[in-house]
Amino acid sequence: MSDEELSKYPQEVQESILKYLEQLGDKERIAYSIAKEHLGTSFNVLKSIGYITWKKEQTK
């Protein structure tokens, strides 16, 4: 995710997104890239199933 894309979110959300992206495995990273490429500007990491699931696990 580029700095420009991240800058539209508050600092706390930016940190959460970066932590999520850092923990992705190889296959998940490829799937993330494909989703971004195919969906373009309509892709929102905060609404992705992977991020939502990861976020729920972090709050347990």
Primary descriptors:
60 residues; mainly alpha
Characterise this structure.
With 60 residues, this protein is mostly helical. The chain has one domain (3-58). 68% of the residues lie in helices and 0% in strands. The chain contains four helices and no strands. The protein has helices at residues 3-6, 11-23, 26-39, 49-58. The longest helix is centred in the middle third of the chain and has 14 residues, at 26-39.
Q: Count of helices?
A: 4
Low-confidence stretches: none
Mean pLDDT: 94
Shape: globular
Provide a concise account of the structure shown.
The protein has 60 residues and is mainly α.
Write the topology of this structure.
Blueprint: H1 3-6, H2 11-23, H3 26-39, H4 49-58
